[in-house]
């Protein structure tokens, strides 16, 4: 099984200003992307987990419960299956983890939203945000759909 990997984009910042990063974590389905991304929050005083999945069946409800249990009380949980840019924009945490972009895009297509416009809006919000944001996404084609 391939392990997740990440790319960080650092922006120059004035002396004394908090470092802000936008990191994209990619990996195959069920490769440990979320756990890897959660580990990047070490040292963050305030952490937010923005989930894009909806608990539409028993399997997804179980996966969501497992993720919440693993994260514990140190995280603020936000559910944003469609309004991701708004959720990121209104989040006051210094570390934000978005899990996952693949599901968010699927949700947008399912309700026939203008995906390009939504992605552009999210990019604008990310560019203006202070603090770090980690985006988790599936590396489509890296593996098969898991059982």
Q: Roughly how many Å is the radius of gyration?
A: 15 Å
Lateral strand order in the biggest sheet:
1-2-6-5-3-4
SSE pattern, N- to C-terminal: EEHEHEHEHHE
| Rounded mean pLDDT score | 86
Could you name the CATH topology?
Rossmann fold
Total beta-strand segments: 6
| Percent of sequence in beta strands | 15-25%
Which word captures the global form? globular
Distance between the termini: 14 Å
Question: Which properties best describe this structure?
Answer:
147 residues; alpha/beta; Rossmann fold; 6-stranded mixed beta sheet; 35% helix; globular
Characterization of this structure:
- With 147 residues, the protein is of the alpha/beta class.
- The protein has one domain (5-138): Rossmann fold (3-Layer(aba) Sandwich), CATH 3.40.50.
- It has five helices and six strands, in the order E-E-H-E-H-E-H-E-H-H-E.
- It has helices at 33-39, 58-71, 84-90, 101-110, 115-128, and strands spanning 5-10, 21-27, 47-51, 75-79, 95-99, 132-138.
- A six-stranded mixed beta sheet has the order 1-2-6-5-3-4, sandwiched between helices.
- Helix 3 packs parallel to helix 5 (115-128).
- The protein is globular and about 35 Å long.
- It starts with a strand and ends in a 9-residue tail after the last strand.
Short description:
This protein has 147 residues and is an alpha/beta fold. Helices cover 35% and strands 24% of the residues. The protein has helices at 33-39, 58-71, 84-90, 101-110, 115-128; strands at residues 5-10, 21-27, 47-51, 75-79, 95-99, 132-138.
Q: How are the SSEs ordered, and which strands pair?
A:
Elements: E1 5-10, E2 21-27, H1 33-39, E3 47-51, H2 58-71, E4 75-79, H3 84-90, E5 95-99, H4 101-110, H5 115-128, E6 132-138
Parallel strand pairs: 2-6, 3-4, 3-5, 5-6
Antiparallel strand pairs: 1-2
């Amino acid at each position: 099984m391939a392990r997740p990997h990440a790319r960080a984009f650092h922006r120059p910042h004035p002396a004394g200003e908090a470092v802000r990063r936008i990191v994209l974590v990619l990996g195959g389905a069920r490769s440990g992307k979320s756990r890897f991304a959660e580990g990047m929050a070490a040292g963050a005083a305030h952490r937010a987990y923005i989930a894009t999945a909806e608990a539409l069946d028993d399997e997804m409800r179980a996966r969501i419960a497992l993720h919440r249990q693993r994260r514990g009380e140190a995280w603020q949980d936000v559910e944003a299956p469609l309004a991701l840019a708004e959720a990121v924009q209104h989040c006051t945490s210094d570390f934000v983890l978005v899990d996952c972009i693949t599901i968010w895009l699927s949700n947008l297509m399912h309700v026939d939203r203008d995906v390009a416009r939504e992605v552009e809006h999210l990019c604008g919000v990310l560019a203006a945000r202070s603090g770090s944001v980690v985006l988790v996404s599936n590396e489509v084609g890296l593996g098969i759909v898991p059982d």
